[in-house]
Known about the structure:
This protein is an all-alpha fold. The chain has 22 helices and four strands.
Amino acid sequence: MAWPNPFRRQTENTRSCWGYTFELTPDHLTLEQAIPLRYSYDVLGEEALKRLNEISPPKTSRRKTTDAAFVDKTDKAPEETDRSLGDDRNPANPKEQEPHHRDLYALLRDHADEDDTLNKLWRQVNTVPDWVDWDQIARGQDVFYRYGGAALTGLCYQSLLGGMGAARVVEVLARTGGFGVQMARRRLFETTQHILQCTKSLESIKPGGEGFASSIRVRLLHAAVRMRIMKLAETRPDYYSVEEWGVPINDLDSIATIGTFSATLIWLSFPRQGIFLREQEILDYIALWRYIGWLVGCPTEPFSTPSKAKAVMETLLLYEVEPSETSKILANNIIRSLEHQPPTYASADMLIASARWLNGNELCDRLGLPHPSLYYWALMAGQCFFLMVMHYMNRAVPSWDQKKVTVVRRLMWDMIVNSKFGLEGRMTNFEFKHVPEYGILTELGQSERAKLRYGGSVEWRNLRWLLLGVGAMALGTYVNFRIASSVLGVFRK
């Protein structure tokens, strides 16, 4: 939660938006500087994907619309629509085809020596920039697990859910159809899988490693989504407005994505949970995400220093966050997809309280999220107290810290990747599964308002820690009162 600072001095450079106040500096982009980034993008990644599609043509199965969140409102017959888009399905066989799984990273690696464009991309991603310090990257990976609980909370409720306030970005997400109620949870786990792969070990993020390969797959997936939406927009201009929303997954969007995984955590999510990183931790964590940004085709200059990373986060808050009706749909779908789900079994009220605590009431009102009772605000206070105790206590003792990082790294992998409620051991290769099509837009799913789930819910843990925190404050107040009384008594004598 952002608390107002009554001692803040207002200047002509002071800006406030969505409950956050900052000072404009030369590091902040002006609107005139930001707008061109909406129309520039990773050209090399897209050119490489076109060559890979020629080498190994994609084959996709017809989308099954089993989720109530997906509706096809096209006025054409499916077969007519497919042909008009130049779809690579077999028109001679109207029945659903088995998908042809392609590993774009493996294709790029295996054919890099056969094509100039592929070779250029392959050489680029395998060339480690001069500014990369592997020891620093390893420390940055540890930062994520040192504050693992607060990091996952921030990524889910602020970076993802709060990020739905960026209207331009959600127009692309909605057209993939991947944020319906039944799909959003899977998408969340897949995104987290990429983060875990990038932080699994130092070898994982180095060229040839697991996280390195996944980052290249994500880069090519972004190119595929961009090409598909642009192709549809050419045939039917009212499907997607490039003039209004920019090129899909453009440079500004990429900068925003890397920023939400790094700067937003450091300067928004963590402080609002009572967690403040050391200066070296900030340097290390920004360096990690700057390198990941390099791999996924994102401009890296905005992350060359912590001050620039913080400035770009604030610039995006100022110019890019403006919720739309589509923003409301996707934000509510995320809540519906997570309520009463393992491992936390949190109610919708608890999830919404988390979102409001991290994003503020102004943004959440615009996202159409209801107001939970004061009870759930109190539970969030208990959760923050729990996280502060756990994170600061372990950070204070180096041996505890290293053991915790090791344990949390393993637990997160098991929870997200291996568990039955996670990916069930079936990791994604970031294939182009959610293919944009005419009329396929995410709609608000229908579900009853959630109620508190008794039993193993995270809410009971938060309640216990709230009571413990209140008890500790009461005890501290009593002890201080007795000490003060004793001191006053001495002076009176």
